[in-house]
Amino acid sequence: MKTLKGQNIYLRALEPEDLEFIHTIENDESIWEISNTQTPYSKFLIKQYLDHAHKDIFEVKQLRLVISSFNNEALGMIDLFDFDFKNRRAGVGILVKEPEDRLKGYGKEALKLLIDYSFKHLDLHQLYCNISEGNDASIKLFSNQGFKNIGLKKEWNYVNGSFKNEYLFQLINN
């Protein structure tokens, strides 16, 4: 689909071959904070998830896509979650897996592709994201794509023995 193809990356549907990639991401404790994960996932559960990944966003209220290079290397994932068709909004989450692949523009390009897809093809009115205070890279990424910081949720997430604040960012399609 041309809509999900950029200059350096493209977004694609999940495939059964993504099992190891997703298993590695979901079990990386260093990123559990951004995904609100507290326990590891088995390959069995991820395989079950992949078996149902083909279902329509209108049914499962989520769309998870792989950020892929043109040589078919999986670089990360980008999600629409809490898809609310009635109110025409969804949350956005993004992760570029390897630190050496970050700050190369892949996340920026993936986010731009997802925004365009969400507004043009899903007819959404708004997107939002939740970003932990101190996650400057994500704050910059979303701000540069037009998301506005509309609020601070005080002591929202309990992480490593203390509470952390979380920002709510929003992008409205005008």
TrEMBL record:
Keywords: Transferase. Residues 9-170 form the N-acetyltransferase domain. GO terms for molecular function: acyltransferase activity, transferring groups other than amino-acyl groups. It comes from the Bacteria. SUPFAM superfamilies: Acyl-CoA N-acyltransferases (Nat). Pfam families: Acetyltransf_3. The keyword Secreted does not apply. Gene3D superfamilies: 3.40.630.30. Signal peptide: none annotated. The keyword Transferase applies. This is Diamine N-acetyltransferase. It comes from Algibacter luteus.
